[in-house]
TrEMBL record:
Natural source organism: Streptomyces naganishii JCM 4654
Record protein name field: Methyltransferase
Keywords assigned by UniProt, alphabetized: Methyltransferase, S-adenosyl-L-methionine, Transferase
InterPro entries with a match to the protein in the record: Methyltransf_25 (IPR041698), SAM-dependent_MTases_sf (IPR029063)
Domain Methyltransferase: 60-153
Gene Ontology MF: a single term: methyltransferase activity
Taxonomic lineage: Bacteria, Bacillati, Actinomycetota, Actinomycetes, Kitasatosporales
Pfam families noted in UniProt: Methyltransf_25 (PF13649)
S-adenosyl-L-methionine is among the record's keywords: yes
UniProt record, GO biological process: methylation
Length: 241
């Protein structure tokens, strides 16, 4: 993260003391050179899984950031691809990275909690965005996803397996979230970004409450941990016809 291509400690500090929107506007030019970007193997695994159940017509990348997920949608959607994010800086970078070939790409600045669409998509994907929402916001977020899906449409959401308790990754994520909670307790505006915000069963329950039928998949492309369990799962939440 502190390589010459990535953000400096000072830039990260300024971002962390800003609002979420302003912070991502500042980070956008260097975002793809940070660990916050969804890794290509995860994107490729989701794309392969969706190819097996597609193709789709129109697709939406919810909280698209710099547009890494737009390539996934371009692989599986025939009609159009739309990215939505509330950071102008991130959308500017997504515009530069938008796929040249395939369906037409549109980028829309909007809040994911108030999507400006109605039954417009056959597929919605989201990568690494849930940590920017508080638990009380999940019901409204998922109702919004339901409202923009056409009947029979699919919401695909990859979720990594949590690190083993006591592992280095476990303590790193726990420490990061603790720092963010202290920061938000003493500083305004809040910067909502947590890695351990939700339990997996809670996500499934809230999706079902929103009226989506949930299936869990462990595509082989995600790989397995040493004990044989999946490194990640893909939640496939479908709006009933």
């Amino acid at each position: 993260m502190f390589s010459p291509e990535g953000p400096t400690p000072r830039e990260l500090a300024v971002q962390a003391l800003s609002s979420v929107e302003r912070g991502y506007d500042l980070l956008a030019p260097k975002f793809d050179r940070t660990p916050f970007r969804t890794p290509d193997p995860v994107l490729d695994a989701v794309g392969a899984a969706l190819e097996r159940v597609g193709p789709f017509g129109d697709g939406l990348d919810l909280c698209c950031g710099t547009g890494a997920g737009l390539d996934v949608l371009a692989r599986v959607c025939r009609e159009s691809v739309t990215g939505v994010d509330f950071s102008t800086g991130m959308l500017d970078m997504a515009r530069e990275h938008a796929p040249d070939a395939g369906p037409a790409v549109s980028l829309v600045r909007a809040d994911a909690r108030a999507l400006p669409f109605a039954e417009a998509f056959d597929l919605v994907v989201s990568f690494g965005a849930l940590g920017h929402f508080l638990p009380r916001e999940l019901p409204g977020l998922f109702r919004g996803v339901h409202s923009v899906l056409r009947p029979g449409g699919l919401f695909a959401l990859p979720v990594s397996a949590p690190p083993r308790p006591g592992s280095g990754a476990y303590w790193t994520l726990l420490g990061f979230d603790a720092v963010m909670r202290v920061r938000n307790a003493v500083w305004r505006p809040a910067f909502v970004m947590y890695y351990r915000a939700f339990r997996f069963p809670d996500l499934v329950r809230e999706l079902e409450v929103a009226g989506l039928r949930v299936e869990l998949h462990a595509p082989p492309e995600f790989g397995r941990r040493a004990d044989g369990s999946p490194r990640a799962r893909m939640i496939a939440a479908r709006r009933p016809r």
